Amino acid sequence: MSTLANDRFLRALRREPVDRTPVWIMRQAGRYLPEYRATRARAGDFLTLCKTPDLACEVTLQPLARFPLDAAILFSDILTIPDAMGLGLSIDEGVGPRLANPIRSARDVARLGVPDPERELRYVPDAVRVIKRELNGRVPLIGFAGSPWTLATYMIEGGGGDHDFKRAKAWVYDEPALLHQLLAVLTQSVIEYLKAQRAAGVDAIMVFDTWGGALAAQAYHEFSLAYLAQIVSALGNSVPTILFTKGGAPWLEAIAQTGCSAVGLDWTVNLGDARRRIGEHCALQGNLDPAVLRASIPVIEREVANTLAAYGPGPGHIFNLGHGITPDINPDHVAALVAAVQRG
Length: 344
Known about the structure:
The protein is built from 15 helices and 9 strands. It is an alpha/beta fold. The chain has a 7-stranded parallel sheet. A two-stranded antiparallel ribbon has the order 2-3. It starts with 7 loop residues before the first helix and ends with a helix.
């Protein structure tokens, strides 16, 4: 029996009946909130914010103070693992992540080891423990990691600027064995990292395969999905898992077959079509276009209603955006979205 005051999100992940569709928002703790910007300024830089558990807790809880959301998500970054591997992460406002020591050769790959999540990444499970204490059972806490393929793209490219992934995709075709070697160590790192988050108290796990959709179909199955399946298998029934491949619409059935609890959907697929394709295999999360939040409140309300109608009646839906909220969004528009979901 759950000890949470609000467990709609977890029940929806199990495809159990709920009184209303649960809602949370990717990047719900972020730059669109003035209170986040104030805490970020106090921290001095983004990585200090991530690596200071009390501050990470503060920003994790900020959106819950504003909006009646059904889940919190750990405030962190997907590049914590490459940073712990010694790749020299820096994050510049308006520019994005940079890695001072990118992976460019077999020698670079051979040097990589699996970080100990209770040593090199201790600040993350510490943050989870602080957040769980402060949440005090109000709502579930979601932990997360980047997918092995997505982490590999940043590590090979040296940052996030080139969305053509020229170097990483060259490895797909010219150096597949080396890429598999890199993905293997990343997969083990993600598994250990997520197990540590679970041990610290997260109630669900999300894996962000942000750049899986950049791959051709066969390459997606070989270099992304196969490793996502390993992660789901390693976590087993210890924690519900959500897999989100941005651009993953062609492969929804295959993603569902990994055994994950839910498939996260971007905004390019109709929610009803996705439900018909996946059937009873797992829950669905999504999938309002984040750009809708720039529209007027009546339009936001209409699009929320359209999204709920596209899924239709019955259990197994978690309302979310099709990707993360952007910094330019008015918090009042987020409040309107949450209220519209709650009205159904």
